[in-house]
Design goal:
single chain, globular, mainly alpha, 16 helices, about 350 residues
Amino acid sequence: PRPLPPPAAPLGPNTVYRTLFYVPSFVAGVATSLLWKKLYSPETGPINTGLAGPMESFQRFVGSTPSSLWGGLGWGLLVALVLLLAWSLRRVKAMYADGDLGWAAATVAGGLTLIPALCAVYWLGGDGPGKGADWVVGISAALLAVMAVAGMARSEREFVAKRWDGVGTGQMFGGVMMVGLFVLMGVVATMWALPGKALAGTIEPPAWLQDVSWSKPALMIMGFWGAVGSNTMLLYLAALTNVPGELYEAADIDGASAFQKFWNVTWPQLAPTTFFVVVMGVIGGLQSGFETARVMTNGGPAGSTTTLAYYIYTEGFETGRLGYTSAVAWTLFLMVLVVTAFNWKFGNKYVND
């Protein structure tokens, strides 16, 4: 008799993860946009249906607490924001003094870190309970920046780096701190606005695609879901399997923690994959957006979701301004070329180093 075939190996966790994360890649773009449009429906969408109950309870909780509590939390977080900004600039100064960053790379890192503080001068305080806090952040940022520049000018550098050395590290550090500071600013403004919203009864799920303030974040959430999955996660899963186990063994012998092993072993080994994902993601981000804008919003509300690709389509095929559309398309091409060349020059050097 013919021998029985060996039993099939059970599906491992990597196989399941690859399948789940690859779903956005083989689902049609129009079908995905229609699905998310239904999910974002303010009246019948499952997202708002799930958020309605918790947000109603939260509104009652905020209304039952003194407004001074939320104001105090906002000011406390504002102090934390200034301290985080000070730590960031001090860290940039230390990396410059240690020779990890050249003066140009340190300027990039410090400039990215200061962007939220500059925006705070025009946005954070407003007319609410935190009026004047924008100037607190702005003046603190100016003083901290002057102190950091003066400290770098006086610091004795044991290892002198070239001006663009470490620009990849500077971009990564400055970008992470910029996002963190922006998030903290948003939380501060939310704390100050919560008592008034609870009193007016306006703490409710957002209107998503029908609201100018939420239409862009809605598309960003959808884009993040698609970017984390598909080819990006597949590439990272493949790269993780190629990290040499000897490096982890050496880190264990040296007593490295889990975070230290990730930061000093795993993340540097993933640098080529990260570089490829960033370059392709930037190119795709500049060129994409037509399907979502066309299917979900038609560029609205008030033009808030009109991407470059959709703008080229509307100007060229709806208004017939082909010459103007061609100029916009060539401008988009030049933008992609310049950004890609910048990433290739500095990012590729960072990966090789």
